[in-house]
Design brief:
The structure is a homodimer of 217-residue chains. With 217 residues, chain A is an alpha/beta fold. Chain A has helices spanning 33-46, 65-75, 119-139, 151-156, 161-170, 186-191, and strands spanning 23-27, 51-55, 105-107, 144-148, 176-180, 194-202.
């Protein structure tokens, strides 16, 4: 057996200090930055924690698989699965269909692309989106807040970095924040507790293979 | 603006060939290998596709956040969220609580650790688990099958690699398979369509910070 690689994610023994929220960065040019953030939100939701995902480069009307699934999680009014002990099924568990609910995931952008005519409009949406995300983080009402693809507005100069760093420094101690996107600024990496580089080893596009719907959207 | 880094995951233009299932590998010593696989399963489920996650190093009784959330997704009997058009909410949508359901995620292991007395038992569980996973993949009943942490039984010599490669080669064309774990064998990387190395840049354990429940379990 390969003693060098025990079956654990732990790179050092699990510390025993005080538990607190983390700043987590997923960067790099490979796949999995956003999907891993979705997985973290899924896990926290499963623990009954309020989570929120703000997508800086997706439109509010986006209805990809993740939007449909997170809507289902946040709006489900069922009890626990048959044979399962009552796990937390969200604030609406057992309530009537018309009960109000908060979406877990939300697009803040305008479908920006290099063909966009009005880049200032895209920049303004990013600033408006950040104002909402910052308010959510500072309010301390959410266990986990994902700032999906926020590195792009930072890189394009649409959002200044310092207010983002200040919000991370001053956030409630229990709140975790996940930031995703290519080319995370070094100051953001310095400010983070955990940073993973999703490195592209091989991509199916390179072999001319498109994925089926449900894999990438 | 940084013209070098357009806001897209695409490393080459999206190809127009025939869509098919993919073999996707998440490896490396960083975080996010399993959580990104969970995110892919979440997305596919949101598209109404049957998904299955087999965890080779987790026990069947594991009730981490991901298990609770996937149970909720697979057993939810609600309709769509208020104000949403009817998205697929799984085979049980609208059915009675006692309707049978299939779990999305399942542990196959025995909590193996280096303290384990009976490694042969762990190895036998891995072989039994693989037999079930292989049957699911070959049956073509599932859009996406995740083989979580399968690289460990492969590396420990509990599972031979060739039958796994044969199953991937011979799988139904529409079925995607995601394999996760450190140190993926080169033959597996060669057989994959998409490979991401989750590279550890920084880990909160290194700073002596434990995460709150809901982040890592």
């Amino acid at each position: 057996m390969d003693i060098e690689n025990p079956p654990t994610e732990r790179t050092t023994p699990k510390p025993q200090g005080e538990r607190r929220g983390l700043v987590i960065v997923h960067t790099g040019h490979g796949k999995g930055k956003s999907t891993a953030a979705f997985g973290l939100a899924l896990r926290a939701h499963g623990r009954g924690k309020p989570v929120r995902i703000y997508q800086f480069m997706k439109v509010p009307s986006a209805r990809f698989g993740e939007h449909r699934a997170f809507d289902k999680l946040s709006a489900c009014r069922c009890g626990p699965a048959p044979g399962r002990s009552p796990a937390d099924h969200g604030p609406l568990a057992g309530q009537a269909p018309e009960a109000t609910w908060e979406p877990i995931i939300e697009g803040l952008g305008d479908g920006f692309s290099w063909k966009s005519r009005d880049l200032e409009h895209s920049a303004q949406l990013a600033r408006d989106g950040w104002a909402r995300a910052e308010a959510t983080i500072r309010a301390g009402t959410h266990f986990l807040v994902v700032l999906d693809e926020i590195t792009y507005p930072l890189r394009y100069g649409w959002l200044p970095l310092e207010p983002v760093l200040a919000c991370l420094r001053e956030r409630p101690r229990e709140t975790s924040v996940v930031l995703t996107g290519r080319d995370a600024p070094q100051e953001l990496i310095d400010a983070a507790d955990t940073v993973t580089e999703m490195k592209l080893v091989k991509h199916h596009y390179q072999a001319g293979v498109p994925a089926q719907r449900g894999i990438e959207d």
